[in-house]
Automatic annotation (TrEMBL), chain A:
<feature type="transmembrane region" description="Helical">
    <location>
        <begin position="139"/>
        <end position="163"/>
    </location>
</feature>
<feature type="transmembrane region" description="Helical">
    <location>
        <begin position="104"/>
        <end position="127"/>
    </location>
</feature>
<keyword id="KW-1133">Transmembrane helix</keyword>
<comment type="similarity">
    <text>Belongs to the ABC-2 integral membrane protein family.</text>
</comment>
<keyword id="KW-0812">Transmembrane</keyword>
<dbReference type="InterPro" id="IPR000412">
    <property type="entry name" value="ABC_2_transport"/>
</dbReference>
<keyword id="KW-1003">Cell membrane</keyword>
<feature type="transmembrane region" description="Helical">
    <location>
        <begin position="223"/>
        <end position="247"/>
    </location>
</feature>
<dbReference type="Pfam" id="PF01061">
    <property type="entry name" value="ABC2_membrane"/>
</dbReference>
<dbReference type="GO" id="GO:0043190">
    <property type="term" value="C:ATP-binding cassette (ABC) transporter complex"/>
</dbReference>
<feature type="transmembrane region" description="Helical">
    <location>
        <begin position="169"/>
        <end position="188"/>
    </location>
</feature>
<keyword id="KW-0472">Membrane</keyword>
<keyword id="KW-0813">Transport</keyword>
<dbReference type="InterPro" id="IPR047817">
    <property type="entry name" value="ABC2_TM_bact-type"/>
</dbReference>
<dbReference type="GO" id="GO:0140359">
    <property type="term" value="F:ABC-type transporter activity"/>
</dbReference>
<feature type="domain" description="ABC transmembrane type-2">
    <location>
        <begin position="21"/>
        <end position="250"/>
    </location>
</feature>
<feature type="transmembrane region" description="Helical">
    <location>
        <begin position="57"/>
        <end position="84"/>
    </location>
</feature>
Length: 255, 315
């Protein structure tokens, strides 16, 4: 299935160069966002908040904050990466090249996921300036971060292929993913919610993802780590299945 | 000669139900320049897009250098370079970066010396550091050609290469195509400028309404379907073709000042000398005369606009 490694490298480097052109906005944005969140939630509000399950509130929001930014960045970078060639018409070159669909996927998703992981790392580093964070399972934490980046980049890739306008490109990240993440326990523990709302929240898939990531930090989450892992695997499998179908049918790529 | 591209029974029906291509069989020899002629919407671009892997055919097979273009797509596509009709470019990339990218995409190892020569051949070397959006339309067209040639393809598709291109670039392009042919590259171009086909092509295919209605050596085609006309400028205008000249198919033109005789130049007796003798006999004088060989354009217009079985003249 993989025979054209040079082709993968060409697209990967092309995408990384595209990020490189906007390197300052790309890197400053997460730093500024993180700082703002810490000023508001960490210092202003956080000082009046009690610890969440013996974790100081400032540290408690770090995993959620990383996930919130990484979800939206992954989706927008990966969707933009494949949507642009469709929009400018340069997709003709990819389609006429000796690249297999899997190779295209690896190149585009790999580049977008790389950027997301870098952004996640920057947020993590910036957070260190404000709060003291101990990571209970560092290897699992990195693994979770990479897995989340790849999964949401796959999801973004699907949106990029599906979208037929810039508006459609924006609608899922802004109207679905952002609210679900915000309400998915990025800034609070489900224990803080009234029982009825807690039950509703459990239908939000993002809850399981954030809870799992928080578990790698503090050894505890809203749901069991096994449940979180299952949710991640399910989401990943769904995205891969959908992409497999898109490539097989040439959905919105070929006539 | 061996066929480098074999197309058989190729057809395409778009989702809208539009039948863009039907039962196309075509065999392209290695090293030839083949011109695909047809009016807008005839199916030229669809045919090229299928061969290049951009459009999926509804039926039929394509073999490139012996490789099935669906099953063995890597080998097949590696042999092909495509210059599409539209100028699709990445605005923010430099010329050098985009051409190097194309070579990598096709799985070829880096070769800065080759890319340098390619850019020089296309007069792009001075612009290698410029962003594509800073280039003129003609320069962008050159970049598209450089991208298509960056992986040293054996078959080059040029889809309407000279549409909206100035005279200088058109001449450069023709020279480039001849140069490529000398190196053994097979070239398939689509055009609706007949002069382009007449100037460059070894063989010509005419496509209309999705059907390849004719494939022929260019010179043979002009010979076979070509007609000659003799125009006589008369000293005195005539009201009608005189009855004495009824043996020849004559027409009056130019308000009776011209007598036009259409004849088959391949025939043993063209009828020209006898016509002139008879006219002298009956006292019709003429001031001047000229003959004209019909061009590929006349043939093409005749083929494409001729209403065929069951179709009305308005079609």
């Amino acid at each position: 299935m993989i025979g054209n490694v040079r082709g993968i490298r060409a697209i990967y480097m092309f995408e990384m160069a595209r990020f490189g052109r906007t390197v300052w906005t790309s890197l400053m944005l997460p730093v500024i966002t993180t700082t703002l969140y810490f000023v508001v939630f960490g210092s202003a509000i956080g000082s009046r908040m009690s610890d969440v399950s013996s974790v100081p509130y400032g540290a408690f929001i770090v995993p959620g904050l990383m996930m919130l930014t990484m979800f939206t960045e992954s989706i927008s970078n990966a969707s933009f990466g494949i949507y642009m060639p469709k929009w400018t018409g340069t997709i003709y070159e990819m389609l006429s090249s000796p690249m297999s669909p899997l190779e295209l996927l690896i190149a585009y998703v790999g580049a977008a996921a790389t950027k997301s992981v870098i952004i996640g790392a920057i947020i993590f580093a910036t957070a260190h300036l404000f709060v003291d964070i101990q990571v209970a399972h560092p290897l699992l934490m990195v693994g979770f971060m990479v897995l989340m980046a790849v999964t949401f980049c796959l999801f973004g890739f699907i949106i990029g292929i599906w979208a037929q306008s810039f508006e459609q490109l924006q609608v899922i990240p802004l109207l679905v993913v952002y609210p679900l993440t915000f309400l998915g326990g990025a800034f609070y523990s489900l224990d803080m919610l009234p029982a009825a709302w807690r039950a509703v929240t459990l239908f939000n898939p993002v809850v399981y993802l954030i809870s799992g990531f928080r578990w790698t930090f503090f050894g505890q989450g809203d749901v069991a780590i096994e449940v979180s892992m299952g949710a991640v695997a399910l989401f990943l499998a769904l995205c891969l299945g959908l992409i497999f179908w898109m490539f097989r049918t040439g959905y919105r790529l070929k006539n | 000669m061996t066929a480098v591209l074999e197309i058989s029974g190729l057809g395409k029906t778009y989702k809208s139900g539009h039948r863009a291509l039907a039962g196309v069989d075509l065999s392209i020899e290695k090293g030839e320049i083949f011109a695909l002629l047809g009016p807008n919407g005839a199916g030229k671009t669809t045919l090229i897009s299928i061969v290049c892997g951009i459009v999926t055919p509804s039926e039929g097979t394509v073999t490139v250098g012996g490789h099935d273009h669906a099953r063995d797509y890597r080998a097949a596509r590696s042999m092909i370079g495509l210059v599409p009709q539209e100028l699709h470019t990445d605005s923010f990339e430099t010329v050098m970066a985009t051409v190097t990218f194309s070579r990598g995409l096709f799985g070829k190892p880096r070769d800065p010396a080759f890319i340098e020569q390619l850019l020089k051949d296309l007069s792009l070397w001075d612009k290698r550091g410029s962003k594509i959006m800073e280039l003129s339309g003609g320069m962008k067209r050159r970049v598209m050609i450089a991208k298509a040639l960056s992986h040293e393809p054996e078959i080059l598709f040029l889809d309407e290469p000279t549409a909206g291109v100035d005279v200088e670039l058109r001449r450069d392009m023709w020279n480039m195509v001849r140069g490529l042919r000398e190196r053994g590259v097979t070239i398939i171009l689509t055009t609706h400028y007949i002069e382009e086909a007449e100037e460059m092509a070894d063989r010509v295919g005419v496509i209309t309404r999705g059907k390849l209605i004719l494939v022929e050596e260019k010179n043979a085609l002009i010979k076979k379907l070509g007609r000659k006309t003799l125009t006589l400028n008369l000293a005195e205008p005539l009201d009608a073709v005189p009855a004495e000249l009824a043996d020849w198919t004559l027409e009056l033109a130019g308000e009776g000042h011209e007598l036009v005789y259409e004849f088959d130049s391949q025939a043993e007796a063209t009828g020209v000398p006898s016509l002139l003798r008879r006219m002298t006999d009956i006292g019709i004088a003429f001031k001047d005369l000229h003959t004209r060989q019909s061009s590929l354009e006349d043939i093409f217009v005749g083929l494409v606009h001729e209403p065929r079985d069951g179709e009305g003249a308005a079609a």
